[in-house]
Backbone:
């Protein structure tokens, strides 16, 4: 018995338990042993995270695919898990220690601190997983993985060692994004560009051999900089090779102010003659672009800022080398000053010597650490790198050949642009939480990379015996007695970038490098659903690692979804206060309503503007389905044993079978093409408009009438169509559909495992070959086993039934539209004249007369050769239906009203177009504000079009 009121929270809690107890989502179920696998790996959320709207969208779309393919008979593995999130997790635990006034990380030591992090992980690390379950994610939770699980850690070590052996991992001194608060290198993804109002300093650099005078422009060259504190590390000045102002100076030297070092003027395309003075200072150790300029011209790299963001000058051999006598006085003055305090002091000193030409206000983007909030410092340091350029080549070829495709396809351009210009990938992090780099250093700095410490020790002892650093006997003693080799070989303290381990996710989660059967069965995966922001950081790196180690692409399709923005189109952020919490929406409206909203708005390539009202609207949609199911139950609608919908006789029932088949095809094709919004829109229209608004309304006279064969058939068909709805809607709204299936469908088994209404095509030869390798002979792999045995009605069509019921629906719809346009009160009944009706219409009209009169608020239906004078004429499926409205409405008053409304629409159009024609407004206003004006214009244009149509009809009634 269906409860009177739809209560999402009760249903969600109950169904979650049902699914979990029945192992509904477990991959490799016995009943799917011979089925073709379908695999998706979850983009592993940070173990510190909680569900945000991006997670909700991403996992809803994945779940739709998984539930859809599971119902189509596939052996679905949706691989869940979480990422250890090096920086984020370490920060959480360090903050916790500080709040509890407990010893700090460094006071505890590495071993004790890591014990504390694992303790935190055990207590709090499942938050995000439990929230995903609330969303309805149908992952195989028994296979949940963590990027620092023992098996995944073995995979990480093996990959590092093999890439190092192949020369694809190496150590180098390069610039990195350095967080001066966290004291570690960070990835580009962890850097936020923030607009800052600062200054642009124009500095005079004296030309060697000339007497410097601020009044003599020929004695100096002017450079512009936003970071005067780094000028102490300048090793060159760059000008554009085509800039006539400086061509005679190229190759000459300038004297670095305050320092006295001679630095060369070089010609380089990086310098823009249109910006600033056209000359730029080159500081290779403190700017990424300058680093490349320095490499092109062989300029020295002098680092003058230390890892904590302070000037490092006194003990800095690179800085002090080749300084003229007396120049070190400034080193003493500025040494260990914070970089921003040093900036102020250095500018003061430069001004006192006349080296500052002018200072201009300057707004520019400054990189900040997303975790620490501190300004990121380009820092020259020794780090471990991956030769990404080499690994990128096969990853690009795979996309070009179509082995892997992007949806939407335009994201391929973004992928190629980044891959073709890829830089070495810095993979080391100065943290404690993470995969410690499997590298050990000997007493002379010699590096030994190995999978275990014992293996590294063996390599080291052999090497140093050969070099005669130690004797053979000492080597044997060290091998046997750890205490005797203690300190002789030391492990690298750094850990690997989190993206390194997550790059292995599609195969490490399946048990690789062990010879696990899951690797053969479920790799490569079928689809990856992710956001565009991690195409570079995760998607591309999975492609590289998958092809290098597995010799196959990790996934055949990459679906890139858009952003979820607020209802005005603004990006959600805490600072704006416009963040929408998905858990709050689930509490208020239910997970199904949120899921359907996100799917219905997930048009390819278009960001989602999420309004709470939309979620509320789809909660009403769920309530509509609930009430329709109660109506069916109260009218004793059930599917009898052996019922065959293709053999029903009543026109109305054949029509709903026809419409159901049509919708099934639409929904199926849309999901297969990743057009989630089209699939959701199709099922929505079928449930609300076709089934509830029309089929049940048209069936009511039969259901409420005396018992008859037609009533029995209609009862069965109402229940059958409801069950088809539950199947089609299940991937989108799993909780309510599973509940209604259990209560009303009276089937054996879960809806989550029930067959989809439309059979897919059979397995491809490649899939059959793969299955033969993992499950044995393929003789049994024919259509009945490929999917669960089902009645496939999707080819059912009945054009005659559609023509008849469609005519009724179109006629009533158009009459209702005219009544609404003309402001005809519901209590006022109007007449209908069918003019020049065909024989079919003359036959249909009497059959449906009572229904049409009731639903369209008509007093009478009659036939005539032509439409009466003064009647509003409607064209319904090629035939004229006329509404005589003389005396029913005040034509003059109605025309006045319509003219007034058209005037308002014109004013709205003019107002919006005026703003959009203003180039300054379009250029300076926020993106969401401009888009809002476009939407206002389109809405006003659509409103005006409807009003003009109504006005034209009104003329007929004059």
Residues:
């Amino acid at each position: 018995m269906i409860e009177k009121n739809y209560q999402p929270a009760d249903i969600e809690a109950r169904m979650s338990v049902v699914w979990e107890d029945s192992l509904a989502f477990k991959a490799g179920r016995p009943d799917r042993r011979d089925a073709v696998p379908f695999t998706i790996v979850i983009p592993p959320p940070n173990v510190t995270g909680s569900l945000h709207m991006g997670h909700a969208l991403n996992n809803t779309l994945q779940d739709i695919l998984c539930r859809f393919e599971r119902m189509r008979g596939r052996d679905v593995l949706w691989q869940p898990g979480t990422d250890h999130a090096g920086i984020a997790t370490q920060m959480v635990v360090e903050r916790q220690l500080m709040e509890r006034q407990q010893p700090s990380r460094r006071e505890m030591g590495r071993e004790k601190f890591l014990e504390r992090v694992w303790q935190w992980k055990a207590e709090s690390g499942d938050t995000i997983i439990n929230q995903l379950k609330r969303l309805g994610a149908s992952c195989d939770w028994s296979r949940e993985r963590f990027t620092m699980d023992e098996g995944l850690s073995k995979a990480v070590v093996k990959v590092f060692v093999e890439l190092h052996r192949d020369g694809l991992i190496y150590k180098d001194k390069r610039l990195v994004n350095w967080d001066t608060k966290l004291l570690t290198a960070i990835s580009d993804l962890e850097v936020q560009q923030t607009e800052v109002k600062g200054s642009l300093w124009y500095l005079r650099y004296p030309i060697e051999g000339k007497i410097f005078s601020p009044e003599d422009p020929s004695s100096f060259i002017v450079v512009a900089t936003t970071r005067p504190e780094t000028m102490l590390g300048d090793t060159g000045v760059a000008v554009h090779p085509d800039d006539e102002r400086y061509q005679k100076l190229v190759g000459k030297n300038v004297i670095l102010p305050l320092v006295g070092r001679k630095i060369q003027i070089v010609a380089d395309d990086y310098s823009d003659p249109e910006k600033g003075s056209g000359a730029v200072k080159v500081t290779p150790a403190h700017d990424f672009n300058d680093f490349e300029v320095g490499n092109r011209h062989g300029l020295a790299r002098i680092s003058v800022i230390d890892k904590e963001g302070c000037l490092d000058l006194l003990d800095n051999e690179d800085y002090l080398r080749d300084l003229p006598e007396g120049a070190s006085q400034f080193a003493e003055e500025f040494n260990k000053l914070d970089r921003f305090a040093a900036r102020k002091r250095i500018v003061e000193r430069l001004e006192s010597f006349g080296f500052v030409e002018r200072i201009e206000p300057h707004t520019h983007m400054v990189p900040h650490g997303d975790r620490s909030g501190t300004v990121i410092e380009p820092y020259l340091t020794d780090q471990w790198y991956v030769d990404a350029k080499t690994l990128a080549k096969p990853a690009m070829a795979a996309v070009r050949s179509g082995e892997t495709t992007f949806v939407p396809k335009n994201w391929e351009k973004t992928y190629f642009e980044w891959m073709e210009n890829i830089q070495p990938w810095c993979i080391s992090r100065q943290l404690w939480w993470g995969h410690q780099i499997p590298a050990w250093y000997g007493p002379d700095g010699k590096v030994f990379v190995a999978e275990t410490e014992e293996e590294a020790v063996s390599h080291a002892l052999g090497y140093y015996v050969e070099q005669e650093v130690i004797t053979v006997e000492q080597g044997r003693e060290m091998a046997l007695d750890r205490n005797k080799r203690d300190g002789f070989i030391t492990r690298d303290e750094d850990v690997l970038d989190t993206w390194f381990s997550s790059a292995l996710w599609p195969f490490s989660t399946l048990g690789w490098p062990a010879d696990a059967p899951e690797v053969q069965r479920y790799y490569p995966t079928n689809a990856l659903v992710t956001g565009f922001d991690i195409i570079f950081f995760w998607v591309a790196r999975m492609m590289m690692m998958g092809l290098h180690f597995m010799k196959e692409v990790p996934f055949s399709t990459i679906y890139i979804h858009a952003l979820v923005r607020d209802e005005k189109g603004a990006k959600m952020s805490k600072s704006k206060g416009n963040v929408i919490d998905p858990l709050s929406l689930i509490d208020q409206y239910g997970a199904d309503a949120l899921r359907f909203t996100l799917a219905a708005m997930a048009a390819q390539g278009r960001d989602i503007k999420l309004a709470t009202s939309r979620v509320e609207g789809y909660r009403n949609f769920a309530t509509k389905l609930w009430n329709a199911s109660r109506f069916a139950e109260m009218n004793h609608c059930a599917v009898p044993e052996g019922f065959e919908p293709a053999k029903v006789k009543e026109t109305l029932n054949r029509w709903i079978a026809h419409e159901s088949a049509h919708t099934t095809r639409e929904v199926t094709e849309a999901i297969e093409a990743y057009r989630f919004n089209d699939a959701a829109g199709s099922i929505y229209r079928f449930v609300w408009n076709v089934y509830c608004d029309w089929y049940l309304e048209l069936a009511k006279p039969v259901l409420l009438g005396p018992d008859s064969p037609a009533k029995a058939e209609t009862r069965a068909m109402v229940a059958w169509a409801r069950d088809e709805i539950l199947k089609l809607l299940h991937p989108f709204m799993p909780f309510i559909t599973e509940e209604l299936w259990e209560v009303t469908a009276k089937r054996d088994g879960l809806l989550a495992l029930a067959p989809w209404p439309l059979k897919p095509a059979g397995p491809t030869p490649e899939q059959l070959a793969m299955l033969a390798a993992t499950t044995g002979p393929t003789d049994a792999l024919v259509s009945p086993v490929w999917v669960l045995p089902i009645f496939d009605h999707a080819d059912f069509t009945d054009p005659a039934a559609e023509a008849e019921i469609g005519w009724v629906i179109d006629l009533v719809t158009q009459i209702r539209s005219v009544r609404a346009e003309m402001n005809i009160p519901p209590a006022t009944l109007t007449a209908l004249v069918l003019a020049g009706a065909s024989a079919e219409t003359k036959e249909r009209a009497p059959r449906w007369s009572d229904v049409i009169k009731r639903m369209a608020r008509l007093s009478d239906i009659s036939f005539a050769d032509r439409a009466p004078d003064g009647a509003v004429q409607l064209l319904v499926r090629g035939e004229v239906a006329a509404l005589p409205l003389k005396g029913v409405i005040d034509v003059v008053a109605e025309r006045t009203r319509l003219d007034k409304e058209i005037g308002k629409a014109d004013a709205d159009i003019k107002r919006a177009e005026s703003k959009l024609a203003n180039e300054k407004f379009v250029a300076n206003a926020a993106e969401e504000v401009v888009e809002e004006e476009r939407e206002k214009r389109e809405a006003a244009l659509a409103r005006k079009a409807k009003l003009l149509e109504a006005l034209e009809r009104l003329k007929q009634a004059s």
Q: What stands out?
A: DSSP finds 34 helices and 29 strands in the chain. Residues 927-956 form the longest helix (30 residues).
